[in-house]
Amino acid sequence: MTSLAPDRSTHALEDRVALIACGERPGKTQACARCRRKGEMLLNIASTGATDALAAAICGTGKPPSCGDCAAKARQIVRVYGEEGPR
Prior knowledge:
By secondary structure, this protein is an all-alpha fold. It has helices at about 10-25, 35-45, 50-60, 70-85.
């Protein structure tokens, strides 16, 4: 059985998603360890476009409704995924 390793662009997108979830701001170049660990999961949810589920995962509640900040981050992540994600 052959498995394909994710390419660099997937890792870069995962890092970007984690940074957005962590709270992207000027000068901040990397997500915290907690958000980096969530990166793959957040990317998978973003690929479905399910902003409510994504916001809940970012917020840490696991279920909607999420706070406004996390809902805004989820919308941004879905937008970034649409622009930079796999075609």
